[in-house]
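[worker-b] picked up task from shared queue
[worker-b] task type: protein-ligand structure
[worker-b] ligand name resolved to flavin-adenine dinucleotide; SMILES cross-checked against name lookup, match
[worker-b] sequence length check passed
[worker-b] input payload:
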Amino acid sequence: MNTTNPNTFAPESRNLLGINGFKLSKGNKVTVIGAGAFGGWSSLYLLRKGFDVTLVDAWGAGNSRSSSGDETRVIRSTYGGNEFYFDLNVRALSLWKENQERWNKQLFFNVGVLWFCYERDTPQLDDSIPFTKKHKQEYEYLSPDELSKRFPAVHTGDLHHAYLDPFGGYLKARESMQQVHNAFLSEGGNYIQAYVRPGSTESDRMSFIELSNGEQIKSDLFLFACGSWLGKLFPEVLGDVITCTKQEVYYFGTPKHESELYDKLPAWIDVDGKDFYYGIPGNQQRGFKIGVDKRGEIFDPTDGDRIANPNVLSNAKKFIEHRFPGLRGAPLVENRVCPYENSPDGNFIFQSHPEAANVWFLGGGSGHGFKHGPALGELVANSFS
Ligand SMILES: Cc1cc2nc3c(=O)[nH]c(=O)nc-3n(C[C@H](O)[C@H](O)[C@H](O)COP(=O)(O)OP(=O)(O)OC[C@H]3O[C@@H](n4cnc5c(N)ncnc54)[C@H](O)[C@@H]3O)c2cc1C
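[worker-b] inference finished, payload out:
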């Protein structure tokens, strides 16, 4: 859940979603490596374009090591003055709805997103307002009094106002990825569970990739959507570009006599300008979820133990007791460590290998990529057809 970076750059400064003309023909073989939000949705949309798609993942769609493997993720349009991501979210939201209807399975929960603002001017929100009007997805401005009346569980003493985005909410994460994967299989995709190593490059092409089961795969296009692993897989190209940090989320138990009060709260984001705590109270009955967007320590997504840092947990508890006083002393019922796959400026990365025209990278979700999955998948598939 990155709330900071996408607001700090101009889209033109380093927007690597610049697509050039590598075109494939129907029936060409495409291999996607990584079945997370980026690779999973891309493989589905590439398949729907008529390509012969094979998806490979080391541990499976929505696995616990992946960024997409948590229970839930926030979906919200707000990106300050960055219209590109606002629009991408609008498209993604519409595709989430379209696909869940097609599958008859609810993945998007329209509980709204509540933004806690400390100052009168909060560019992160204010600069998105023109886009909300353009798309007829306007936010509601709530004074502290109105906020207290609507959401009595929230402490409003230090807030100037709040905005409620009634169009956002949360998505099931791990379950969505498994659903996308099942759709990919039932629509005719091939899947292999194996760890991939890039093959050698000759005459501007990668001739094959190597799988941990000993197989080699040849392909017209290799799309590496390996999340936090991208930097290590291509150290010479992405080693300094994608860094992986340890991010923690905690699920707290709500009071037994008013659990419904908390479950019905919108997703929320605290715009304090430093920690950016956020949460998903409903969280599919797994507990009142809170996370912190501030970057954690550098992390190894394959071998790192997923153990909570006591200081990060203690600070999260303090915050929750402050913002939701009724949760003072709430027990921790679950927690999770998830990797952020950070790009230098929070922009997504979609670019070709400088020495192999048939190798493309898709990544850099940087704590805000999950919700965009279907829109990115569509964009990727369109760019090759
Ligand atoms: C704590 C936390 C909170 C977040 N909150 C939000 C939020 O609220 N809203 C939002 O939109 N986004 C959020 N994000 C960001 C979002 O989850 C990620 O941007 C998104 O899930 C990234 O998807 P991905 O497919 O790039 O990576 P991943 O989900 O990590 O998928 C990569 C896949 O590649 C596979 N793989 C890697 N290397 C290999 C290999 N060599 N061979 C084979 N397979 C390989 C892995 O097994 C994995 O399945 C959050 C992230 C975290 C960590």
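[worker-b] attaching auto-annotations
[worker-b] DSSP finds twelve helices and 22 strands in the chain.
[worker-b] releasing lock
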